[in-house]
Design goal:
This protein is α+β, with helices and mostly antiparallel strands. The chain has 11 helices and 14 strands. Strand 4 and strand 5 form a beta hairpin.
């Protein structure tokens, strides 16, 4: 690990000033600290956001839930309002990593990192959420741009994410047993504008599947997607699974998610 200075602000204004000056934001640290230990990252200064209370918590705003960027996975999973309004989101948070990861990892850190096998990006994209930063609001469809890449600009901080409350939603995840990341995970949502299907773990980043959405708009039932073609050319292959197997899992996990959403 390279030497660095550590700043611990207690309000958003100070955090913004430090990050704007070039320091690296530190959320839950589940990815960044490992990178530092392996000397894959060399920030001169870290800004620990844990003391910024403005970035934590869940609140209801009309027909949406606004969740602070520093809200931990375990708090999303156990929050009464999340469980009542978007139970699929609470269930997703409860499946992330292990107990230690859920006690430290945060919503904003996961979304900003945009790991191609992370769970939260599929919920953000599947629900058509809005990423709120210290500068602007970014629609989910414009936020995720590929492998570890987002629309965030240098020095820009995620402060919260606004999740519209859907009619139905659920997440189905086929875990990689060692890392507990998604080998393939599918978040489905039935919204006022129609069905949305977001896939994680299968490609170089989270993505929506137009064919599955079209099928579910005709009938929101597991059997509706049975004949939808899933192109293996769009999927990754590695030592854990072939592209063809991941393509198969996309359909299977979609069916499971729809069945869960329908109760």
């Amino acid at each position: 690990m390279y030497a660095f200075t550590l700043e611990q602000p207690h309000n958003l204004a100070d955090a913004k000033r430090l990050v704007g000056a070039g320091a690296q934001a530190l959320a839950g640290g589940q990815t960044l600290l490992a990178s530092l230990k392996q000397r894959l990252a060399q920030p001169g200064a870290l800004v620990d956001l844990r003391g910024v209370g403005e970035l934590r918590g869940v609140r209801r705003e009309g027909n949406a839930l606004v969740i602070g960027a520093m809200t931990r996975h375990e708090d999303v999973a156990s929050h009464t309002d999340v469980k009542a309004a978007i139970p699929g989101l609470a269930a997703l948070a409860g499946q992330i990593g292990d107990r230690q990861v859920r006690a430290m990892g945060t919503l904003g850190g996961s979304v900003a990192n945009n790991d191609p096998a992370a769970c939260y990006p599929s919920a953000v994209l599947g629900l058509g959420a809005t990423v709120i930063t210290d500068r602007r609001e970014i629609a989910a469809d414009a936020f995720f741009q590929g492998l570890y890449t987002t629309a965030l600009e240098p020095g820009e901080l995620i402060t919260a994410i606004r999740f519209p409350i859907p009619k139905k939603a659920a997440y189905a995840k086929f875990r990689q047993p060692a890392s507990r990341f998604a080998l393939v995970g599918v978040f489905v949502a039935l919204t006022d504008a129609g069905a949305r299907v977001a896939v994680t773990g299968a490609g170089n980043g989270v993505f929506r599947h137009a064919g599955l959405e079209a099928a579910l708009n005709k009938g929101f039932a597991p059997e509706a997607v049975a004949g939808v073609p899933i192109d293996a050319a769009d999927c990754n292959a590695d030592l854990h699974a072939s592209a063809a197997y991941r393509a198969h899992l996309i359909r299977v996990q979609t069916q499971r998610a729809v069945a869960q959403a329908n109760g």
